[in-house]
Amino acid sequence: MTTPLHFNAFVMNTNSHIHHGQWRRPDAGQVDFNDVRLWIDLAKRLEAAKFDALFFADVTGVYGDADADFDVYIREGLQIPSNDPIPLVAALAVHTEKIGLALTSNVAQSHPYQFARQVSTLDHISNGRIAWNIVTGLQDNGARNFGFPRLTDHTERYAWAEEYVDVTYKLWEGSWDEGALLKDRESGVFGDSSKIHKINHESERYSVQGPHLPSPSPQRTPVLYQAGSSASGRDFAARNAEAVFLISPSPELARQQIEATRSRAVEFGRRGEDIKFFQGLSFVIGDTEEEARAKAEEYEKYISIEGYLAHSALVDSDGRVYDPQTPLKDVDTNTAKGFGEWVSKAITDREPIVADIAVLISRSTRLVGTPEQIADALEIWQAAGVDGINVINWVIPGSFEEFADKVLPVLRARGLAQSEYGDGPTLRDRLFGEARVNDRHPAAKYRGAFAAVEVGA
Ligand SMILES: Cc1cc2nc3c(=O)[nH]c(=O)nc-3n(C[C@H](O)[C@H](O)[C@H](O)COP(=O)(O)O)c2cc1C
């Protein structure tokens, strides 16, 4: 039997998120991202199309060298200006009923006590539809905005994330026992203090006494997303993630990453199927192949070479984005060496230039074709182990509308997309068949763990 794929709409509360330059198109609604009505309208459309979730990426500063100027980012509207997804998700929660709402939050940007409280509040407001994309940052500027001299060392960032999630797991899973909230008007007892516990957490960075202020929300722990690809990132995912976000250049490479992460998860006492993998893809859809190709060419006219280079931090030693015409052999960058090697392999009939990198990035996870051809390609991704797709947009809302109107019906006919939301009120119910993290997840060990600790101890 065919299993339906899951579909998320991948967005950011900004003008230019992934496909830089497209905001100049006349149908690009994302220029009005400050207007909450854009997002409410999008969330409703996605829910009508039975998308699993609306997924918000986020950053804590600008890309590139923290000491360089940032005029490229401003000119392009490239993730600046950008708004915080958390209050936006609250607004979307009250205008929708079923769709999951995923937000990104960096461990450096807020204290875990405060963050855990915000998430519990959102999970209450949405009746259990919140997911958290756990990130550790990619920007020196993003670190400096929170009082750190630079981005913390890579391995250390993941150690920090482990410490951070540990605090939140204790608050979400351990601080309140089941049945602690009584709301008993007769007896005049609102909560049962014998079932509510301080967590007395002490670690290198955090000291948190507790108890958690909110009462348990439908999911308690939100659905946990993560996107690390390095060895330490993968270990973190194998231990903690319930969904992993990939931008793999091919199904075969996705398969390798999925298998490696799943077998690592088993070493940590979890099961391979405890983690779902979402590949990021963008789509150019035509009624015929020719129409799709023509549309792809039209999108390419709007591509901002400089935008892609700036986003991928292809900058010189002074932190400046390279001139697009620079021969690749003259590039000396610390930041994006992998891209150079990739382009040199792809372009062999002439001298590759910096602009080639941008074009290749824009095409790397793009599927161009008829709805049938796209469905065929998605079957290949699914066969590689992918459970879902994060649909990356060119324009909002058009890219999602087109996908919903043209591709989803074909996928449904093949059993590859859901026609209705699954049972259960929460996002986790619909992904995993239960509202709470399963017993193999590290958060689960805190259930009841503080019950023996005397109140006030
Ligand atoms: C599809 C995808 C989406 C991501 N979204 C964000 C994001 O919204 N904010 C962020 O700070 N980092 C984001 N990242 C970066 C990851 O959190 C992570 O730092 C990056 O993949 C490098 O992984 P590594 O640290 O294991 O090498 C994203 C990465 C991928 C692949």
Order of helices and strands: EHEHHEHEHHEEEEEHEHEHHHHEHEHH
Provide the helix percentage: 25-40%
Strand order of the largest sheet: 1-2-3-4-9-10-11-13
Instruction: Look at the structure and name the CATH superfamily of the largest domain.
Output: Luciferase-like domain
The distinct bound ligands, ions and cofactors come out as:
flavin mononucleotide
**In whole angstroms, how far apart are the ends?**
54 Å
The number of helical elements comes to: 15
| Range of strand content | 5-15%
**Structural class by helix and strand composition:** alpha/beta
Strand tally: 13
Description:
- The chain has 15 helices and 13 strands.
- It has helices spanning 36-48, 71-76, 85-95, 112-125, 140-144, 154-174, 231-240, 251-267, 289-302, 305-311, 337-346, 354-364, 371-383, 398-413, 427-432; strands at residues 6-12, 53-57, 100-106, 130-135, 181-184, 189-191, 201-202, 207-208, 223-226, 243-246, 276-285, 366-369, 388-392.
- Helix 1 (36-48) links the parallel strand 1 and strand 2 (53-57).
- The protein is an alpha/beta fold.
- The strands form three sheets. It has an eight-stranded parallel beta barrel with strand order 1-2-3-4-9-10-11-13, surrounded by seven helices. A two-stranded antiparallel ribbon has the order 5-6. A two-stranded antiparallel ribbon has the order 7-8.
- The structure holds flavin mononucleotide.
- Flavin mononucleotide is lined by residues 57-59, 104, 106, 135-138, 227-230, 233, 245, 247, 280.
